[in-house]
Design brief:
- The complex is a heterodimer of chains A (about 400) and B (about 100).
- Helices cover about 35% and strands about 10% of the residues of chain A.
- Chain A has about 400 residues and is α/β, with parallel strands linked by helices.
- In chain A, helix 13 links the parallel strand 8 and strand 9.
- Chain B has one domain: Potassium Channel Kv1.1, Chain A, CATH 3.30.710.10.
- In chain B, about 45% of the residues lie in helices and about 15% in strands.
- Classes of the chains: A alpha/beta (about 400), B alpha+beta (about 100).
- Chains A and B meet through helix 2 and helix 3 of A and helix 3 and helix 4 of B.
- Chain B: Pfam families: Skp1_POZ.
- Chain B: It is found in: Nucleus.
Chain lengths: ~400, ~100
């Protein structure tokens, strides 16, 4: 059952994964310095992908600290992602900058100990840094943000920040003034003290802008239809990824006056990811209009989770538009859906489907979906109490979240 | 069933069922190539015998259980920490 929850589709792990688990475990248990050194010696032989997996395995055990960090420091690295930096100290970040000076893209999630000094150190010592993804940098204060963006003026192409109350309007405006015209990817999520999102359209204007993530403003009026409409007006045409999760102030007007005119190039949009979670003011009519007016020939991932107002017609229109390309679809919590929607669902590339808390879903529907969508491997059915242990989908499909399953 | 030989750096040779070896994309390419390896003997100079044995043990384990039904109890595959790193490099090379 643990494998099921980890969404592993095969019972057999690959030998690489088994080894990575063992290595991760022995590093945690013995904190073996010799092991770390041995790995460093042979590092040239480990592929970047496995290195990344090792970072993930360590992260799972909260074992990434200043000692184990050394594993990943390599002068030739250009990309580094850490999923849990809670134990990395200021010294660790400093070492990172010294030993991997060629880093271009750096992602530090849960970087709670990253302080003012460390951030500026990274900015100074990493001359090639172009992409920075930070989650939880709550020690960084306003002055440091301002200084940081001045240091990176014109260099940043991607900047994502989430979960800090110290990133405020002044920091945002410093970011936009210095880096706005070079940015191609921007993510702002759960920032309690940012209110002035209306600044964004004035500064973001790169013709290559491809990723926009604006999630969960502290007041729903901060990200309103006008902001999104004028923002899409300047950067909408080449967007590949758009996420507006929990921007609950948005209404159909945003779709009609923003998405329709600006998200496409003569009727064709190149979006691959569209997430509109918990937009409770968006109606069926809005979504129907969106998917009947524009073509989304590349759309792979779509989430309409908890858009409570949506009914069958909205999802059917989405399927009519994109059923051939969709790989992941999230319809969690669309409580008005009826079984009719699922008779239309035949997506040859769909791999993951979330239909939790859609009350009409029962054994029969799940079995039909599993038959009609041949690549599907995972169906999530949390809260669907008509899906029971008797449900027997096609081989190769995992049902997650049934009440009858126990761990 | 056709068998092939895998040879370690120290010259020890192990015979393996061809289908078992074909699970590794790397070996598969070699066996399907027009080079001498396709005749059924592959020298793996980088692997010492201990690693080669463990690799074969894994491929046989995975071949046996890959199509197992949900109700079959799949035993865990044990790897001792002292060879884990070298085994990782080998697995990386073989793509398994």
């Amino acid at each position: 059952a643990a494998n099921l929850l980890d969404k592993k589709d095969s019972l057999i792990s690959s030998l690489q994964d088994i080894c990575i688990k063992v290595i991760g475990k022995s590093i945690v248990e013995y904190n073996a310095q010799s092991m770390v050194e041995h790995i460093r010696d042979t590092l040239g032989g480990v592929s970047l992908e496995n290195l990344n997996k090792l970072a993930q395995a360590l992260t799972k055990n909260r074992a990434l600290n200043d000692d184990t960090l050394q594993l990943f420091l390599n002068t030739s690295l250009t990309t580094l992602t850490f999923y849990d930096c809670s134990k990395l100290s200021y010294e660790g970040y400093k070492r990172l900058a010294i030993f991997s000076p060629h880093l271009e893209s750096l992602s530090l999630q849960m970087c709670g100990q990253l302080n003012n000094e460390a951030l500026l150190y990274l900015a100074e010592k990493l001359p090639n840094l172009k992409e920075l993804y930070l989650d939880g940098p709550f020690l960084i204060n306003e002055d440091t943000w301002v200084q940081f963006f001045e240091l990176l003026k014109g260099r940043l192409t991607a900047f994502h920040v989430s979960n800090t109350h110290r990133f405020n309007d002044n920091a945002l405006s410093a970011m936009l003034r210095n880096c706005g015209s070079s940015l191609e990817s921007l993510g702002l999520a759960t920032l309690d003290t940012v209110t002035n999102y209306a600044l964004l359209p004035q500064y973001l204007n790169s013709p290559n802008f491809h990723t926009l993530i604006l999630e969960e403003p502290s007041r729903e009026t901060d990200i309103n239809d006008e902001v999104i409409i004028s923002l899409l007006g300047s950067i909408g045409q080449n967007l590949r990824k758009l996420s507006l999760n929990r921007c609950t102030g948005l209404t159909d007007s945003c779709i009609i006056n923003g998405f329709l005119p600006f998200l496409s190039n003569s009727g064709q949009s190149i979006l691959t990811d569209l997430e509109l979670e918990e937009l409770d003011q968006i109606t069926t009519d809005g979504i129907v209009l969106l998917f009947s007016s524009l073509q989304f020939p590349l759309l792979k991932r779509c989430s309409l989770k908890r858009c409570f107002a949506l009914e069958d017609a909205a999802v059917v229109e989405l399927l009519l538009n994109s059923s051939s390309t969709l790989e992941e679809l999230n319809l969690n919590g669309l409580k008005s859906l009826t079984s009719k929607t699922f008779t239309f669902m035949a997506c040859p590339n769909l791999k993951q489907l979330n239909i939790g808390f859609v009350h009409c879903v029962d054994n029969e529907i799940v079995e039909k979906i599993s038959k009609d969508n041949e690549k599907l491997t995972i169906i999530e059915v949390y809260g669907d109490n008509q899906v029971t242990g008797k449900c027997s989908p096609r081989n190769g499909v995992s049902i997650i979240g049934r009440q009858s399953d126990s761990i | 069933m056709e068998e092939i030989s895998l040879v370690s750096s120290t010259g020890d040779s192990r015979t393996v069922n061809r289908d078992v070896a074909m699970q590794s994309p790397t070996l598969k390419r070699m066996l399907e190539s027009s080079f001498i390896e396709s005749q059924g003997t592959i020298k793996l100079e980088e692997f010492d015998t201990r690693i080669l044995d463990k690799v074969i043990e894994y491929m046989e384990y995975s071949y046996k259980y890959k199509d197992a039904d949900d109700d079959v109890e799949v035993p865990e595959f044990n790897v001792s920490p002292d060879i884990s790193l070298d085994l990782l490099l080998a697995a990386d090379y073989l793509g398994i």
